[in-house]
Each structure stands twice: as C-alpha cells, then as structure tokens.
Write a structure and sequence with these properties.
There is one protein chain. The chain is mainly β and about 130 residues long. The protein has no helices and 14 strands. The termini are close together.
Length: about 130
C-alpha cells in the first residue's frame, strides 16, 4: 500500500510524504535513493511535470512487513501548480531497480521544480 499525505511546509516549498507499507507475508527487500520514472496523474490523466531528485542516494533501507518506508515530494510554493491524485514511480535498490511500477494515492499539487527525496525508514504502522 502506498499513500500520499501532506507534510509540514518549509520555506518556499510544500511537502508531501509518500508512505509505503508491505502486507504481511511479503519478503523484505533493500531500497536506496529516490524513486525514478515519477509521473503524476489527476483522475487518470497524466500531468506534464518533470521531476528531479535530491538528498543522499546511497543510503540503504529495509522495506517489508513491519518496516514501512517513505519519501518526500518537495514542490515549489508558487502560482501555477497542478492538482494531482496519484504518483507512479519505480523503486530503486542498491544494485538497480525493482521491476514494475508502484502507485501512491492522495491529493497533492505539483509544479515545475518538483523534486523527490530518497527513501527513508518510516514510523507508519498501517498495512495493506
């Protein structure tokens, strides 16, 4: 399960947290860095926003049952942002990519200059 929620803002930016939780029975895996191939949609229609990455890309975290992770979507706080309700992305491992695409759902706004932070351990407790 992957969910997008609003996070505290910083100077000149809005932040959204994407939290991923694994259902019981899934095998743990190792993730590292910011997700790639990030796309945003609103009601199923793609929004044309190119994103970058920020933060350390080499830190490895464990993801699996009982080990939720999250990453940050940092959006410049300016006029002309575009509403979205879905983010699709590819998760990275220390050695490459996890095949397939993951989607997270929740309300957010995106704009040119949006960047994606690295995956980090989370304290979320919800499971799918």
């Amino acid at each position: 399960m992957a969910k997008i929620t609003r996070a505290p803002s910083s100077s000149g930016h809005r932040h959204y947290r994407v939290t991923l939780t694994a259902a019981p029975g899934y095998e743990p895996c190792r993730l590292a860095g910011s997700p790639t191939d990030v796309r945003f949609c609103r009601h199923g229609s793609a929004e044309a926003v190119t994103v970058g990455q920020y933060g350390p890309q080499h830190v490895v975290v464990t993801f699996g049952p009982g080990h939720p992770v999250h990453f940050d979507i940092r959006v410049p706080d300016r006029a002309g942002s575009t509403p979205a309700d879905e983010a699709s992305f590819t998760l990275r491992t220390p050695d490459g990519m996890i095949p397939g695409e993951t989607s997270a759902y929740g309300r957010l706004n995106v704009a040119p200059g949006t960047v994606i932070g690295p995956v980090r351990p989370s304290t979320a407790t919800a499971t799918a």
